From TrEMBL:
Lineage, uppermost ranks: Bacteria, Pseudomonadati, Pseudomonadota, Alphaproteobacteria, Rhodobacterales
Protein name: Glycosyltransferase family 2 protein
Keywords carried by this UniProt record: Transferase
Protein's organism: Paracoccus litorisediminis
Alphabetized SUPFAM superfamilies for the sequence: Nucleotide-diphospho-sugar transferases (SSF53448)
Record-level Gene Ontology MF annotations: transferase activity
A Pfam family reported for this protein in Swiss-Prot or TrEMBL: Glyco_tranf_2_4
Length: 322
């Protein structure tokens, strides 16, 4: 039913720049939905091009900041536009499922938000194709990456983020612990919560905190479908990205650059639109917390160094990938 729904939703997407005929059989593809994220796009595209992404497939949901026009001029980007409800499209996942169905089959596909930056073991010396080649050789079809919230030291608005800048020059801190993990019995995926958003915005109701578990990188087949964001997929076997026999499977992190100087304006906009999960309760919590001028940094915060640091903390794993 989810796949049928996505196929039906294709009529809501208007192609603005369709360069999908340029996609080659071996290309690794990136999929995302955006709204008013132009300030992030130059660095985002540069980051993933360096990693080895060959084509970007983007749905723009009614941006009025010039982001759509910017993407339409990029030679390795195909972009579609829609003014339909983000909420009614299951928070954009119907649109992405359609593009994955139409263009992703047979490719390794990375699905992320514009403030999510994948890192994996050896990412500083090996392109993403080295990772996907190893996954292919290991007959592994999906790769997990925990969402790691990054934040500055001090007030978020104190250091202005400028277009094209590296967000992690500002948001360079993270929580090394303070995470809970459990298994979802219905879909078999892991459910991870915690980190700075839980302690700052959901300290009285941590079970209401955002999910940090993601499965963003998948060798796609037409029968696959994301169920809820990139938290879980069907078939369920794709969600078993962990080893239940005491070992560890390779995994990465998505460095989450949400908490920059742009955050307060963005959260106010999304609170007014009410297009996010649970009637935007998460953004209500953000808005309330920001009014209290809370600071994410604490004595336990760590400054990000590299993937090896995260491996030592148990937040990332090489598994059997030497």
């Amino acid at each position: 039913m989810l796949l049928v729904r996505a196929i039906r939703r294709r009529r809501r997407l208007r192609p603005v720049a369709d360069r999908t005929k340029r996609i080659r059989r071996s290309d690794i593809l990136l999929f995302m939905t955006i709204r008013n994220e132009k300030i992030r796009l130059p660095y985002f595209l540069e980051y993933y091009r360096r990693m080895g992404i060959q084509h970007f497939l983007v749905v723009d949901n009614g941006s009025d900041d010039g982001g759509l026009e910017y993407l339409a001029e990029e030679p390795d980007v195909s972009v579609w536009s829609t003014h339909d409800s983000y909420k009614a499209s299951r928070f954009g996942i119907d649109w992405i499922n359609w593009l994955l169905y139409r263009y992703g089959a047979g490719h390794w596909c990375l699905t992320v938000d514009p403030d999510e930056f994948l890192i994996y073991p050896h990412h500083d010396s090996r392109p993403i194709k080295a990772l996907t080649d190893w996954l292919d050789a290991s007959t592994v079809k999906s790769f997990s990456a925990m969402l790691l919230d990054m934040y500055p030291k001090g007030q978020i608005a104190a250091q202005p983020y400028l277009e094209g800048g590296d967000p992690f020059q500002i948001a360079s801190w993270f929580d090394p612990a303070n995470y809970t993990i459990r298994k979802n019995g219905e879909y078999w995926n892991l459910w991870i919560q915690g980190g700075p958003r839980c302690r700052a915005f959901f300290r009285d109701n941590p079970e209401q905190g955002p999910a940090l578990n993601k499965i963003p990188l998948v060798r796609w087949e037409r029968s696959y479908v994301y169920v809820s964001s990139t938290h879980m997929l069907l078939p369920r076997s794709l969600n078993v990205v962990y080893d239940e026999d005491g070992g560890e499977k390779a995994s990465g992190c998505l460095l989450h650059a949400k908490f920059l100087s742009t955050f307060e304006t963005k959260s106010a906009e999304e609170l007014e639109r009410r297009q996010h999960y649970s009637d935007s309760q998460e953004y209500m919590a953000y808005h309330s917390g920001l009014q209290e001028s809370q600071d994410f940094w604490c004595d336990e915060s760590r400054r990000f160094e590299d993937w090896r640091q995260l491996e030592n903390l148990g937040l990332i794993s090489k598994g059997n990938w030497a």
